[in-house]
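Run log // design_07
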């Protein structure tokens, strides 16, 4: 029961926080000057009509109410004014989601097993030469930004070896093999830092668990080292490792903004940068709402996942 109450409480706080973020962003945007309607040419009448519908000539707080009503009743985020002029923001957003989601899913699928594998191996070989090599590599990989890896990948794998194209294939067939190959440079660029993060977290947590007394008890009961590690050590270490995987996925989703631009991936990252550079308020609001919601929802998922993995932990219990 207390877990149910805790989830309801967190959902209530999520709604309150989310509304506050939207209100702050909306207010700050409305304080900026609007582009002159005459600059839109043949789309001027359409954009002027949509501005009137969204109450652009009314007080900000009233505009915010109209904005929320339009979003939650009609899923109307307005139309593009500077980019994708005259097109529905929601429709353009939906067309960009598959590329971003697939990029991050591929990165996670590749990075998780490799990162966990290196972390487990380093923990089992702690303070040995293999551990020192892996730890040194992790420090280097964590310290280098993802866009630096992007340039290295382009030079080595695209230019020198010619294994991959420099940019993503211009197509919407996202599940084809040729599309996956064209996305590989971006996937590799994001994977280096992600693998390093998983490796470091897994090694640190598993090393601590392996020194606990219950591991000695498990060995004295007749379990082999591998059995004790898999049955007991890994289960306890996953209490921290698994939530970090979810958090890292959200981090990759945000960090792919620059990578998408470098490799011309038609995803949300490039759309976000275009909205900021061209001062398109409607696109900026929807993308800000999207990233804010993911970040807030991830915190709840992390807390709930911890209690599922380890029943001894009950979030919200006194």
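design_07 sequence
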């Amino acid at each position: 029961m207390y877990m149910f109450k805790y989830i309801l409480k967190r959902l209530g706080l999520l709604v309150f926080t989310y509304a506050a973020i939207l209100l702050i962003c909306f207010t700050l945007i409305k304080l900026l000057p609007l582009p002159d309607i005459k600059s839109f040419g043949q789309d001027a009448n359409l954009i002027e009509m949509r501005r009137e519908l969204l109450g652009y000539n009314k007080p900000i707080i009233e505009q915010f109410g109209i904005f929320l009503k339009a979003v939650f009743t009609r899923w109307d985020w307005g139309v593009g004014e500077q980019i994708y002029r005259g097109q529905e923001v929601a429709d353009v957003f939906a067309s960009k989601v598959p590329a971003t989601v697939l990029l991050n899913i591929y990165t996670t699928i590749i990075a998780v097993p490799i990162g966990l594998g290196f972390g487990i191996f380093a923990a089992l070989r702690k303070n040995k030469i293999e551990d020192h090599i892996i730890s040194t590599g992790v420090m280097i990989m964590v310290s280098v930004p993802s866009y630096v890896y992007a340039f290295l990948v382009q030079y080595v794998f695209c230019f020198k070896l010619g294994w991959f194209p420099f940019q993503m294939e211009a197509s919407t067939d996202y599940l084809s093999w040729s599309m996956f190959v064209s996305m590989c440079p971006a996937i590799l660029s994001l994977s280096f830092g992600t693998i390093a993060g998983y490796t470091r977290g897994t090694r640190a947590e598993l090393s601590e668990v392996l020194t606990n007394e219950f591991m000695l008890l498990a060995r004295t009961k007749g379990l082999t080292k591998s059995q004790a590690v898999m049955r007991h050590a890994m289960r306890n270490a996953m209490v921290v490792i698994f939530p970090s995987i979810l958090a890292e996925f959200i981090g990759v989703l945000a960090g792919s903004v620059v990578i998408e631009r470098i490799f011309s991936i038609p995803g949300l990252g490039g759309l976000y940068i275009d909205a900021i550079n061209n001062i398109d308020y409607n696109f900026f609001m929807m993308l800000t709402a999207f990233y804010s919601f993911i970040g807030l929802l991830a915190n709840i998922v992390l807390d709930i996942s911890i209690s599922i993995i380890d029943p001894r932990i009950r979030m919200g219990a006194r």
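The longest helix spans residues 225-262.
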